[in-house]
Design a protein that fits this description.
alpha/beta; Rossmann fold; 7-stranded parallel beta sheet; two-stranded parallel sheet; 9 helices; binds NADP nicotinamide-adenine-dinucleotide phosphate
Length: 272
């Protein structure tokens, strides 16, 4: 699919990957719908994209609320009459030991945005794309959707759900001319960590050379619109970890427990 003049919804466009994707779509001449809760940030980005000569629509939406999703889709149809591209990007992680996560603010909220937000937005957009007999849906997964590590329990559950949902959907909607692609980035430098509540004692983080910028992920998303792909793991080196997790999970368990879990918790468990 070419991007020029296409109508593209980007959720979570107020920062990080979503912002970079929206900007990239604007550069390519798409009509970009920017959705998130921080409307001031969306408006600033919309002005920037308009200055490139592309049309925009700003919709303030909390993706955990069905009424906001309905409004996002109806405002898009009212202004542009169709939807060609949906990037389900909005999401966040609250990364801590399970018993320390708040049942509502951390656990329920992650599932509501990362899983229900993706499902309900897609559910509302789908009839529009089916009528058109064309469309491209790109779901922002994560390496955590393939390999789950300590303190990522709920985030990993949410991204595994996105993986399963997208796989089924891809097979459901292909006959209607709709492509479903999944992106699995490793660590990306965005606001993500500020919202995650990470308080690590060990240096268990993504090696610097494996860190991506939001722009690199946005470029991958643009490529997926042009040439859909079932699974895009970036950087590709993470595929080695995915392979090991699938075929030698005992080794991954061993290294994870000994490198992450025990050093992180030895104080509180008094096992030094
Ligand atoms: N950064 C990473 O290392 C990484 C790696 C793999 C995958 N990802 C995934 O990439 C996606 C984007 O994350 P990011 O790294 O770009 O982080 P970010 O800079 O924190 O952006 C998150 C975006 O999601 C939006 N959002 C959060 N809760 C929302 C809600 N209830 N309703 C509507 N929008 C909401 C935020 O907008 P408002 O706060 O304005 O609502 C923001 O625009 C997420 O799905 C994340 O899981 C990130």
């Amino acid at each position: 699919m070419e991007i020029k003049n296409k109508v593209a919804i980007v959720t979570g466009a107020s920062s990080g990957i979503g912002e970079a994707v929206a900007r990239q779509f604007g550069r390519e001449g798409a009509k970009v719908i920017l959705a998130a809760r921080r409307v001031d940030k969306l408006q600033t980005l919309a002005q920037e994209i308009n200055a490139m000569g592309a049309e925009t629509l700003v919709v303030q939406a909390d993706l955990s609320k069905l009424e906001d999703i309905l409004s996002l889709v109806s405002q898009t149809i009212e202004k542009f009459g169709r939807i060609d591209i949906l990037v389900n990007n909005a999401g966040f992680g609250r990364l801590d030991w399970l018993e320390k996560l708040d049942p509502v603010k951390d656990i329920q909220a992650q599932i509501d945005v990362n899983v229900m937000g993706v499902i309900q937005t897609t559910r509302q957009v789908l009839p529009v794309m089916m009528k058109q007999r064309s469309g491209s849906i790109i779901n922002m997964c994560s390496m955590a959707g393939l390999v789950a590590t300590p303190t990522y329990s709920i985030y990993a559950a949410s991204k595994h759900a996105v993986h399963g949902f997208s796989e089924a959907l891809r097979r459901e909607v292909k006959p209607w001319g709709i492509d479903v692609s999944l992106v699995y980035p490793g660590g990306v430098v965005t606001e993500f960590n500020q919202h995650a509540g990470i308080n690590r004692k060990t240096k268990a983080s993504t090696p610097k050379f494996m860190l991506l910028t939001a722009e690199q992920v946005a470029e991958a998303v643009v490529k997926l619109v042009r040439r859909p792909h079932r699974m895009l793991i970036i950087p590709w080196l993470w595929s080695v970890t995915v392979f090991m997790n699938k075929f030698i999970p005992g080794f991954v368990d061993y290294t994870t427990i000994n490198r992450f879990t025990i050093p992180e918790r030895e104080d509180e468990l008094n096992i030094k």
